[in-house]
Design the sequence.
């Protein structure tokens, strides 16, 4: 049981650290806190964590087959290019709206839309499956972290999502706490343009990787 807890903890730490880079879900969570509220951002975060569970599970049970499947990887990359490019164009041309500074603001937002937004952005990240596959291999090179039994595999998968959700929760907390300062120092139109350019850069990077 101790080994299971260690695997869970280490997988969560790896997921937390691995998510520190400013990715599409992180950016969308921050944007949602600013333009909607923390409650809506939690839904984006929850949706963004589900693929972590899915891809880490695939890495555990079918990793070698999926990672070596060049057709699947290329198809996933193409879809992600289209998605991120569309998101980039959307934000660049999106009109800046006034942001409410009420701490418990409950602006009307489609609950399912926020969840699926986070889910889609994370699902079409072609780096997730290879990342968890190589982490799985690295764990199995260490006796204490060797993932073999069903409960150990479950701990590995749970840790992958828990760590990502913990980091997104931190982003939500910090953005909400410093919301007033962020709004007062940054032009709202510039925020949208910056986010749009960010998504276009991700799309371009994916395009270059498959050419």
Sequence:
């Amino acid at each position: 049981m101790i080994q299971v807890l260690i695997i869970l903890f280490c997988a969560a730490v790896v997921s937390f650290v691995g998510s520190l880079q400013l990715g599409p879900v992180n950016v969308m969570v921050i944007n949602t806190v600013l333009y909607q509220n923390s409650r809506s951002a939690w839904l984006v975060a929850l949706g963004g964590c589900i693929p972590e569970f899915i891809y880490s599970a695939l890495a555990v049970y079918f990793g070698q087959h999926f990672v070596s499947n060049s057709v699947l990887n290329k198809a996933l990359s193409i879809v992600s290019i289209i998605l991120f490019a569309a998101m980039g164009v959307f934000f660049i041309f999106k009109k800046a709206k006034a942001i409410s500074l009420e701490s418990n603001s409950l602006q009307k937002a489609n609950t399912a839309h926020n969840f699926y937004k986070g889910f889609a952005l994370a699902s079409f990240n072609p780096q997730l499956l290879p990342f968890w596959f190589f982490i799985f291999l690295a764990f199995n090179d260490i006796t204490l972290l060797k993932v073999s039994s069903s409960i150990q595999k479950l701990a590995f998968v749970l840790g992958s999502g828990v760590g990502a959700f913990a980091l997104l929760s931190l982003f939500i907390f910090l953005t909400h706490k410093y919301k007033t300062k962020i709004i007062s120092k940054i032009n709202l139109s510039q925020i949208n343009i910056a986010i749009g350019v960010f998504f276009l850069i991700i799309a371009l990077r994916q395009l270059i990787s498959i050419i």
